[in-house]
Amino acid sequence: MKHHLIYVTGLGDQRVKGQQRLLSVYPLFGIEAELYQMNWADGESFTAKRDRLLTLIDKRTHEGKTVSLIGISAGAAAVVNTYVERSTAIHRVVYVCGKLRGSVNPSYFMENPAFYETMQILPKSLARLTVTDKAKMQSHYAIADPVVPAPCTKIDGVSCALIPMVGHAASIVTDVVILSPRIVCFIKHRSDGL
After folding, report:
1. Could you give the CA distance from residue 39 to residue 11 in angstroms, rounded to a whole number?
2. Which of 8, 32, 63, 140 is 20 to 30 A from 148 in CA distance terms?
3. What is the CA radius of gyration of the chain?
4. Distance (Å, whole) CA 38 – CA 22
5. What is the tens place of the pLDDT at every residue in 185-194?
6. What residues in the chain have per-residue pLDDT under 70?
7. Whole-angstrom distance, CA of residue 181 vs CA of residue 161
8. Which domains does the chain have, with CATH numbers?
9. Distance between CA atoms of 69 and 90, rounded to whole angstroms?
10. What is the pLDDT of residue 193?
């Protein structure tokens, strides 16, 4: 089966050309990569955005692809909330500098109502994760990230990988591009342990 990675954007995703370019490294490793633009600030509900993402996952799975998700920053919460709806169909989940815990500046919620909704849904989604679900997940966090500090990225029972970088955007780019081989290794690891 062909590996297929769906990249879910974080806040500020009105323009995604740069993020699209980041994904060009993955075909070199035999992984198709596709960007799913959340459009966090467009006023549409998170549920509608998630439903479209679920439809995309179903479509790629139906095409015979092994689907994995990568969530960037706020996209991590979206990915976790989506994963619990298709945990048997999704092969792996990676989230990079992902905001899953802690307080959020209210201005982010005002500008991105779908982010508020996904963070409200998140506690129930986290409670639904099984030990098996968590074994298919990995959290990547920066040495120092003023936007999403390391404790905000962790889920008990989910493996973690340190990004040897300081800063939010720089850490994301470093992880998704320069450290892409470790993401590839995690994605390509077989679920049966072989």
Report:
1. 8
2. 32
3. 15
4. 17
5. 999 986 544 3
6. 190-194
7. 13
8. 2-188 (3.40.50.1820)
9. 8
10. 47
Residue 137 CB coordination number (10 Å): 23
The single-letter code of the amino acid at 7 is Y
Question: Which residue bears the tokens 């849904």?
Answer: 121
How many other C-beta atoms are found inside a 10 Å radius of the C-beta of residue 167? 17
65-72 and 2-8: which strand pairing?
parallel
**Which residues partner with 144 through β-bridges?**
166
pLDDT at 95: 97
Task: For 43-60, give one letter per residue: b (16+ CB within 10 A) or e.
Answer: eeebeebbeebeebbeeb
Measuring CA to CA, how many Å separate 178 from each of 48, 181, 184, 188? 33, 8, 12, 17
| Whole-Å CA distances, 86 to 27, 55, 126, 168, 184 | 24, 11, 14, 29, 21
* 142 SS3 class: strand
| 125 CB-side CA count, 13 A | 21
User: Cα dist. 51→13, 63, 158, 190 in Å?
Assistant: 19, 18, 25, 27
